[in-house]
Amino acid sequence: MNPTPPASRTPPFDVLVREVGPRDGLQSIARTMPTEAKHRWITALAASGLRTIEAGSFVSPKLLPQMADAAAIVRQALTIPGLAVAALAPNLRGARDAFAAGAPELVLTVSASNEHSLANVRMTTEQAVAEAKKICEWRGALPADQRPFVGVALSTSFGCSLSGPVSEDRVVALAVQLAAGGADAVHLADTVGYANPVQVKRLTARVKRELGGKLGAGHFHNTRGQGLANAVAALEAGVTALDSSLGGLGGCPYAPGATGNIVTEDLVFLLESMGLRTGIDLEKLIAARAIVAAALPGEPLYGHLADAGLPKGFVYAATARS
Ligand code: ZN
Asked: Which residues pair with 187 in a beta bridge?
């Protein structure tokens, strides 16, 4: 019996917003946020009601010095009551390190594009799938009450900046293979912002038909301004979890001006306006931007809600229902 997603043990909500800024956002910019600021940021994010936070990546500090303090960050985040702490692990070694730090949720990555996989983790897609299976087997051998939840982010599911279009049949087949290999969830990721809503709805629905409850989060980047439209398309296809980063932090150190993940504040506002409960306080979320702005002066922060404010008469979905 595999574990349930840690965040599902908390009070009712309709859509789980997974904050990935401290991992995806910070690893995509050239500068390093000081450990103490990361912890303050994660604490503020959790206080706004975010239930799952990807706190760091257990990758070689030579490759990503921004993530060198991942173990310390995870350990500190674990002291926040009720927070499900997720960590990215690119291989078995990273998974062991993340587990040793206490992460109850692991995120592995497999790139649907072979070219992207080779460039990113120096493994073919096939080798990355085998590595994910090996991690699931290692996890299965742990004592039942200690096994972390294992999700696999299927990156470049909607297109690749190196090879262009990615076959939908291939993505579906990979998702099935990963679920069969022991993954608890498969997240469909638009790593480079190539997706459009029609494509998202079609591919997500296909994966949902094959995987059912193992369909994980939708992960969209706003590189070409399609992020929130893609998030809505994923919801329509049955996704119940979405990744985002505060202030849309991120981008790509090699592509100046490229924006990062979809903006958490705007996503939460979108969901709540649509009558979907997130359990997140928008004012606290917007206030947390100041921590990032102070720790990374000059780093672009995005988001329309922070600029415009909440509209007059705005009510949260939970209030509207009661
Ligand atoms: Zn991403």
From this structure: 153
